Amino acid sequence: MDELDILNQSSGLLPLDPKYFYYLRYVSSDANIQIFIFVFSYLSIPVISLFGIIGNAMTLSVLIRHGFRKSYNIFILALAIADTLFLVGVNNIPRILLLADKFGFFYTRTESLTLYVVFIVQIGMELNGKYMSMIIPTFVAVERFVAVYFPLHLKSLITCRRARLAVSVLFVSWIPANIYFFMLMRYDYLLHPVSNTSVGYIMRSDLMLNHANVYKVISGFFFMISGPIPVIVVTAFCVAIGVKIQSIKNQRRHLKNYTTIIHFGNYVHCAGETCATLDTNPKNEHITYQQTPNTKYNCEKSSTLEHRNEKNIKFPMTRNGAVKIDQQNESVSQTTITLFSMCVVYAVIVTASSLPSIILNRNNWESDTGALVELSTQLAVCINCSSNFLIYVTMNKSFRTTLKQILSFTKNGR
């Protein structure tokens, strides 16, 4: 008979029962489950969280350099803060000590109370950060949807002021929820019947014990609005944005089929036909390709486009006669692709992590299965909170350039 059973039988005041104590699902007689819990709690989640915290700190540095004159930068800033809150909160040090010390703080009264306060703070960071990081991608998806389908109305519909207001309201709205969840716990400093020493315990409050059905309804509501519902919304907008992106790509591919521009020395060939000879040093001149009903290919050198009701493709020229590609459309496309990719990754990870919680019966939560589902969900959310930095670095040239400048500045100490 181990210490847990002795305590359970010898103390009527302090029964170690899941009805009264938190985290008893982490106690398992199965060696494989114990290994799983140890690897996830002490290795996987902390390592991924550390990487994510560093990545989000670099993201904040880049955003500060770029400024917040774009609404999507405000959303990315809020998302980075929310991700960091969760990554710090999920690695709850007092909770780790609690599990290591048989679900109690075997310290002095002051030390145990301090650990409980830190435990509450980190639980608040975990809850608040998770809810924010689950909901903010819906703001990003809506903003990119408007940018893709209604670009002329983007600045008037989604202003920076409205973006800041939406994020502020979202952060503040979770304060009552945190207060309610804090009221579900209580702290007691009681005599341990085996060691004959006083121990600090985190237990379920009378509010939770006497109103279990209310707790199930409220927790289910918050689960839905911070999991399945945002995922459905983001997925729907991602599909719409993806359709538009593919349509734009098809249009560009269709335009490329009209003509191929190749230059040899001072000549430009349009679909096999030689255009006018270029000057050695053309200034502010353009090669214009025009397709008309009468002539299949008509190339000329001009500085303006005067033909209407015709397809005109204008190519600015550099000093050496090469075609100069306009980078503005490319940067806009990069922003859309980057944020679109972030939303897709979010939808996939959160969907995969939410399904087990939906399938699992709440009555089986305090079991080996409940522990596995909870740790797997935490790991999935950690991956989601840490992946955004990799997406920004991989897919956005402007982000990479600014990050290199920051790192080189720090390295040189200037």
Automatic annotation (TrEMBL):
<dbReference type="InterPro" id="IPR017452">
    <property type="entry name" value="GPCR_Rhodpsn_7TM"/>
</dbReference>
<feature type="transmembrane region" description="Helical">
    <location>
        <begin position="337"/>
        <end position="355"/>
    </location>
</feature>
<dbReference type="GO" id="GO:0007218">
    <property type="term" value="P:neuropeptide signaling pathway"/>
</dbReference>
<dbReference type="GO" id="GO:0016020">
    <property type="term" value="C:membrane"/>
</dbReference>
<feature type="domain" description="G-protein coupled receptors family 1 profile">
    <location>
        <begin position="55"/>
        <end position="392"/>
    </location>
</feature>
<keyword id="KW-0812">Transmembrane</keyword>
<keyword id="KW-0472">Membrane</keyword>
<keyword id="KW-1133">Transmembrane helix</keyword>
<feature type="transmembrane region" description="Helical">
    <location>
        <begin position="375"/>
        <end position="395"/>
    </location>
</feature>
<feature type="transmembrane region" description="Helical">
    <location>
        <begin position="35"/>
        <end position="54"/>
    </location>
</feature>
<feature type="transmembrane region" description="Helical">
    <location>
        <begin position="131"/>
        <end position="152"/>
    </location>
</feature>
<protein>
    <submittedName>
        <fullName>Neuropeptides capa receptor</fullName>
    </submittedName>
</protein>
<feature type="transmembrane region" description="Helical">
    <location>
        <begin position="164"/>
        <end position="183"/>
    </location>
</feature>
<dbReference type="GO" id="GO:0004930">
    <property type="term" value="F:G protein-coupled receptor activity"/>
</dbReference>
<feature type="transmembrane region" description="Helical">
    <location>
        <begin position="217"/>
        <end position="243"/>
    </location>
</feature>
<feature type="transmembrane region" description="Helical">
    <location>
        <begin position="74"/>
        <end position="93"/>
    </location>
</feature>
<dbReference type="Pfam" id="PF00001">
    <property type="entry name" value="7tm_1"/>
</dbReference>
<dbReference type="InterPro" id="IPR000276">
    <property type="entry name" value="GPCR_Rhodpsn"/>
</dbReference>
<keyword id="KW-0675">Receptor</keyword>
<dbReference type="InterPro" id="IPR052954">
    <property type="entry name" value="GPCR-Ligand_Int"/>
</dbReference>
<keyword id="KW-0527">Neuropeptide</keyword>
